[in-house]
Amino acid sequence: MTAIHLLLLAEDVSAAELEALALSRVHQVFRPDPRTLAWSGAVTCTGPRPPAPADHVPGWVRHVVEFRVPAERGGPIPPELRTAGSILAAFPDGEPIGLERDTVALIMAFARRLGGAVRTSTGRLVGAPPIPDLLLFSDTRLEPAAARAALAPFVTVRGDDAAGPPPRPTVPEVVEHGLDDGHRRWLHAEADAFDAHALAEPGPGSESYSVHAPQADGGLVVLTVDEAPVTPIVVADAAWAGATAYVYEVRYYAPPPVPELEPQERAAWLAAQEESLANPAVVAVIENCAWAVRSALGGVERAIVCDDDGFLVTLG
Questions:
Q1: Which residues sit opposite 307 in a β-bridge?
Q2: Which listed residue, of 39, 87, 144, 292, carries a Cα 20 to 30 Å from 110's Cα?
Q3: For 113-133, what is the mean pLDDT?
Q4: What's the CA gap between 283 and 252, in Å, rounded?
């Protein structure tokens, strides 16, 4: 069975822009016809096109991009994880797995980048939650003191270094484990990491470290530096590609939740955290920190900036 998922857009987007985004994430993309992209032997992406009555989309939608992929589903989603508007709520009878999971993750990344939403094959409308975090890739490793000095004009950094908190779940993990439940586990883990970090001692000669900058809203901006186990496709054309690469993750962690929230309170709290991730002030501090790190590394020739979905980002 083929699943048809729709990317819904309010703004104009060209076929060339869609192709550029696909090439940022997928190897061996080709065009079987002028309006269609294809990859992995089974996935097609057609459009953009105007919405049709059969699409059953909201009135704000001006353009639709149609994705077709073989349906692959796991087991039913427990009712407690079917939070309204979440990706798991869109697949109550079985979450996407395998190639379909990867494709849904990619469509969500497209929606986040282009300010759109997703209408799943089950007829549910899902918004792409904002992720303000930025990643820089470079062949140069800054020492902790240099990283703190670079960030100092923009944030108040702590004077000690420690192993960084666990990374934010990637979109495929969100699809697999549930956006809200994964978000909750991540936030609890970050709270534990924040408490433990003051007692942590950086290992001698360790390649990885982090710089922590508490924020006035109770959140935390963290720069984590480590050798990159893998690099995104967008790094392949860098002059230094092939050398040892380091990844600089600039992330914002919202304040930890109040313990033992009631289900309705928890849903409201999660909505507030999602809103905080889209806060212009949060976005600005992340961009300023990324700009500072890139400058310290030697500018655009020595560092490539991308978002958490692996798409290139242009900083001012």
A1: 134
A2: 292
A3: 93
A4: 9
pLDDT digits (tens, 9 = 90+) for 8-35: 999 999 999 999 999 999 999 999 999 9
Handedness of CA 18, 20, 22, 28 (dihedral sign): positive
**In a 3-state reduction of DSSP, which class is residue 153?**
coil
pLDDT at 177: 36
Report the distance separating Cα 179 and Cα 108, nearest Å: 12
Closest by Cα among 123, 92, 180, 101 to 8: 123
- Helix 98-114 with 15-25: angle, nearest 10 deg: 130
pLDDT digits 0-9 by tens, 261-282: 565 565 565 555 566 566 888 8
Strand 43-49, strand 209-214: pairing: unpaired
Most confident of 52-66, 167-181, 235-249, 253-267: 52-66
Q: What is the C-alpha separation between 62 and 9, in angstroms, rounded? A: 6
| Structural domains of the chain in order of their starting residue, each with its CATH number | 2-127 (3.30.1400), 134-307 (no CATH)
Residue 2, CA distances (Å) to 7, 71, 77, 247 in order: 16, 5, 21, 37
Between the CA of residue 170 and those of 167, 255, 309, what are the distances in Å?
Answer: 8, 19, 8
Cis amide leading into 92 (omega within 30): no
